[in-house]
Amino acid sequence: MISRFLKASGLLLLLAALLLLVPKAAAQSDNVATEKEKAEDAKNALKRKTTHFENGNQAMKDAQAIRQQLQAAANDQRPTLLAKMKANYQTAITEYQQALQDTEVKDENGVHVIGLIGVIRNGLVSQQKAVDMLVRDKDLPVILGNLGMAYSGAEEYQDAITMLQQAVILKPAATTYMELGTDLAQVGKTPEATATCNKILTADSAAKGLQAGCLRNIAIALTNKGKAVESVTPLQRATQRNPQDALAWKLLGDALSSTITTKSEDGMIVYVIPSGTVEAYQKYLELQPSGPHAAQVKAALEALAQMTKRGSTP
After folding, report:
1. Where are the domains of the chain?
2. What is the pLDDT of residues 200-214, one digit of tens each?
3. Secondary structure of residue 110 in the 3-state scheme
4. 45: which of 8, 119, 217, 252 lies 20 to 30 Å off by Cα?
5. pTM (two decimals)
């Protein structure tokens, strides 16, 4: 009786052991399934991200093509072309935003931190802390940079600045600094724009042409805001960095011309023409004798020649 009881107890213990093993086996199976699901989700996210990114790039190319057409378009064609260009930039913005959502960026605990860098300016985290928390997806700074350029094309400059600032935190790049400097100038932040242009050579010591273009863009923004006099300094720096930039020389001539004054000398009115004005225009014609601004520059030089004659009156 006791023997049979012991055998029965042994059987019960064996069944109990088997029952304990079943949940473990089920849990292992669940883990395998979860890992497969994660892998499949990651694969699908990568596919979506790639598709959205390529769509965004195509929309940007279409917008740039229309921008080129606008240079030679008749006045009656411009409204239609401008509307199409803006629509392309908006498409690019939407596509890049979608690509951004499918970009895997997590902190050391696996917490999704897309947008974390965006709160730096609110003082929630330091810039270095934000960077340290990120496991960098190599595509993230590219997507952020492209999104910033799309916002800029759509003339949504503040959003452009936000994206571009995040992009250069993750990956300092000369082209991104150039776009950021240009957009800062567009919103009237000239000192910040100049400082950003200065960072271009720290990212790429050979990018003097990009730095010159950034400085020229600051000058254009200033001129468009009626601050031609303030544009002289960035244009002088731009022509020093890239002496082959014909447009910068023409703009420098225009900026210096805006500072022409008069004085009385021996009973006559004499024009005081700033040093370098004539030379800037001459440099433009040397580089582009048949360029789009050649006729305007020649007329300006003729006017300057008349001004230098003694006895001229304003």
Report:
1. 243-314
2. 999 999 999 999 999
3. coil
4. 119
5. 0.76
